[in-house]
Write a structure and sequence with these properties.
Distance between the termini: 39 Å
Strand order of the largest sheet: 1-2
CATH topology of the largest domain: Rossmann fold
Number of strands: 4
Helix content: 55-70%
Number of domains: 2
CATH class of the largest domain: Alpha Beta
Shape: elongated
């Protein structure tokens, strides 16, 4: 169902119109708070589906929060005056999870992998500390998890972290990291 493009563009400023009517291919919109990003994205979705005739299943729009994604979808559907069945309008995290579910085996995870939230992660660190007969008073699970997170962000695997460890605390953290990584692998788990 095609919509009136003049009506769609009438309340947009020139840069917003340029983004909404952008030709084929992806479009990244970066702008500050209150600058009309959501308006541009929703109008872009309406343009693609209602003016250019794109199949909604070819539309991907991502944002950071579920609330923003819901608002985006509702606004675009209001502009189109019908639902966007098949379009992906959601968060970056949900999109990443969807892709990982589709390609779990390629990524080295079982198709039934689970996602560990912060509580699950802390429990896994506690269990790893206990396995090494360490109490969680000298090094708290939060401290160790923070250390592990820094290693993971730097793309340092457990064996490399142990080889690089210089202090007794780093050596202990690296040993916990190895057990923690094994525990996650055995559980078919990834981090949230």
């Amino acid at each position: 169902m095609l919509i009136d493009q003049d009506r769609l563009l009438e309340r947009l400023n020139p840069p917003q119109r340029a983004a909404v009517t952008h030709g084929e291919g992806p479009l990244l919109i970066l702008a500050g708070a209150g600058s009309g990003k959501t308006r541009v994205i929703t109008h872009r979705i309406a343009w693609l589906v209602g003016v250019a005739g794109a199949d909604p299943r070819q539309v991907v729009a991502m944002t950071f929060t579920n609330k923003a994604a819901k608002e985006m979808r509702e606004r675009a559907e209001s502009l189109l005056r019908h639902d966007l069945a098949g379009a992906y309008v959601g968060t970056f995290h949900a999109f990443g999870l969807r892709l990982l579910r589709m390609h779990a085996l390629d990524a080295g995870y079982p198709p039934t992998f689970v996602v560990y939230d912060s509580a699950d992660q802390l429990a896994a660190v506690r269990a790893s500390l206990k396995e090494l007969s360490l109490d969680d008073k000298s090094m708290t699970p939060k401290q160790v998890l923070s250390w592990i997170s820094r290693q993971k962000n730097a793309l340092v695997e457990p064996d490399a972290a142990l080889a690089r460890a210089m202090t007794p605390q780093d050596m202990t953290s690296a040993r916990v990291y190895g057990l923690y990584a094994d525990r996650l692998r055995r559980a078919g788990a990834i981090l949230s």
